[in-house]
Design goal:
globular; Rossmann fold; 279 residues; disordered N terminus
């Protein structure tokens, strides 16, 4: 399969600027495209804060904080020594984690154009040989751009985690479930494998659901595609990931970390879930 997913890259510029704006990354991660997208969305964010109790940045920061927390738990409590971040975009996660855990092996993957740009960015900042970026298309089932190709770059004797952020809702459920199955299968070659991701469910009873539908149209406009929501409940999410080959699945609501993590709070119920699954 050679489906081109380059249409989603503008979101990498916007989120990259959000991380920079909130002090989570270096200047090099901010782009002119990201600044422009931030400016365009400023009045929309103000509208969402007034009517929905949170803006786009709040939900982005919530998911980013909880994903980071889950990965650090895996490093400190489970002994994970290798991390593969797929569809990395301008994520500063590897840059930050390598500063905190220099022994960590960190590989990032993205479509060829973005991968080259990210590798150049990291070289400009200065990173060690244990932090690399490779071209990858998560829809490729085999070959040099496949997930398995990236996993083969890692030590098969060490515990390993895959992480994705802001990725899965760009694909319909049938497509992303195939990707999850490939991930689960690939992680089984390691002593223990983990997967951490965010997911926006289809919570039709959510008090701000109509604004979620507005956000779907907004994302679709910026990416020239769809932004489908997946699963109607936490239980359905857990069952779905188990069907895809993960043996243990945790579903986390960011609100449960309000008292323990430094992140903004939404005035209404949260809209995103963070999944930690293992093989």
């Amino acid at each position: 399969m050679t489906t081109d997913t380059s249409r989603i890259s503008i979101s990498a510029h916007y989120t990259g600027y959000v991380w920079f704006k909130h002090g989570l990354s270096a200047t090099e991660f901010a782009t002119s495209t990201g600044r422009l997208a931030n400016a365009v969305l400023t009045p929309i964010n103000a509208f969402l804060r007034n009517v929905a109790g949170a803006d786009i940045d709040v939900f982005l920061l919530q998911r980013h904080s909880v994903i980071d927390h889950q990965i650090e738990r895996l490093i400190l409590e489970e002994g994970v020594e290798q991390v593969l971040e797929l569809a990395c975009g301008l994520s500063p996660r590897g840059y930050r984690l390598k500063q905190k855990y220099p022994q960590l092996r960190y590989i990032e993957g993205d479509l060829p154009g973005m991968a080259q740009r990210k590798q150049t960015l990291l070289q400009k900042i200065g990173v060690d040989s244990q932090h690399q970026v490779f071209p990858c298309n998560i829809l490729e089932q085999d070959g040099e751009l496949s997930i398995q190709s990236l996993l083969s770059q890692l030590d098969p004797t060490k515990k390993t985690a895959i992480v994705t952020e802001g990725l899965v809702n760009y694909f319909d459920l049938a497509t992303i479930k195939q990707v999850w199955s490939h991930m689960a299968q690939g992680l089984k070659q390691f002593p223990q494998g983990f997967y951490v991701t965010d997911l926006y469910p289809d919570f039709i009873e959510h008090p701000s659901y109509k604004y979620v539908q507005f956000a779907q149209k907004l994302v679709g406009f910026f990416t020239r595609g769809q932004w489908p929501l997946h699963y109607r409940s936490d239980e359905a999410i857990q069952q779905g990931f188990q069907e895809d080959g993960f043996s243990h699945v945790e579903v986390h609501d960011p609100a449960s970390f309000y008292d323990t993590l430094d992140m903004p709070r939404a005035k209404t119920q949260t809209l995103v879930r963070i999944i930690r699954a293992s093989t």
